Amino acid sequence: MSAPPVFDRALLAHRRRRALAGSGGGFLLDAVVDDLADRLAPLTRRFERALDLGSGGRVARLLAMTGQADAVVRADVLVADPADGGPDLVVDEEALPFAPASLDLVVATLTLQAVNDLPGALVQLRRALRPDGLLLAALVGGETLTELRSVLLAAETEVTGGAGLRIAPFGDVRALTGLLQRAGFALPVGDVDRLTLRYDTVFALFEDLRALGATSALVERPRRPIGRAVLARAAMLYAERFADPDGRIRATVDIVSLSGWAPHESQPKPLKPGSATVSLKDVLGDKRPAG
Questions:
Q1: What is the pLDDT of residue 210?
Q2: Would you list the domain boundaries of the chain?
Q3: Which band of pLDDT confidence, cut at 50, 70 and 90, is reported for residue 57?
Q4: 9-145+169-196+253-265 in CATH: which number?
Q5: For residues 8 and 116, what is the distance between their CA atoms, to the nearest angstrom?
Q6: Does the reported pTM lie above 0.70?
Q7: Is the pLDDT at 24 greater than 80, yes or no?
Q8: Roughly what angle, to the nearest 10 degrees, separates helices 58-66 and 27-40?
Q9: CA-CA distances (angstroms) from residue 128 to 2, 8, 50, 100, 124?
Q10: Dihedral sign of CA atoms 221, 223, 227, 230 in order
């Protein structure tokens, strides 16, 4: 029996389409793609067929500029005209349409954190990669929006006597890197880049979240409006607890970057237990007291 879904995927797609139709909100994706450019730069190999998953074409433009891929497929949950910069394919990350061993590079940007079956999605991506193909993924994770989570919980409890889950749970880097290994990727690596965003008020933060299409798409989200009294109290608590000396408030965003390779015989492999030729005692010296 499968676990109940955490995210309302239809609502998520609707909010991302609305974000695409608006303006603003692209700064976070731009920062992630800049970081990906740094990660791709040391690679001297050329990828025959790459997948740009969720970047709105930013990764495709980067690969065209660097010449690191012969062909790039742009894919997203968004419905848009490719002539207007929209995706070549409209996909669901939980049911990807790619044939086994059909891709050499997959770059997934800020999209996998809202997948209900992340282990399954990673398995699909690994199968879609040719041997020695590379996955680079950036996900929102860790302590993202920890300040907002705490003040909303406190304010709603104080004003109404109870509180609902309004911000999605996020995976930490160790757990996410472990999922890569479980999905069959070789040489899995994960790290975290912490961004601290600053706003005049919590309401400016809400505006950015809407512009990003990042407001709650939880299946079990509260259906009642949050209410003006709760918002006012949350704004007051945020200013009290998380403001800098200049009065502006802080919002934490952790970007978890993952990389993993489809297994290939040419890749480095760990030595078998007992195959070492130098003992740890020889390296460290024998520190036992004489007796």
A1: 84
A2: 9-145+169-196+253-265
A3: confident
A4: 3.40.50.150
A5: 9
A6: yes
A7: no
A8: 30
A9: 23, 25, 11, 4, 6
A10: negative
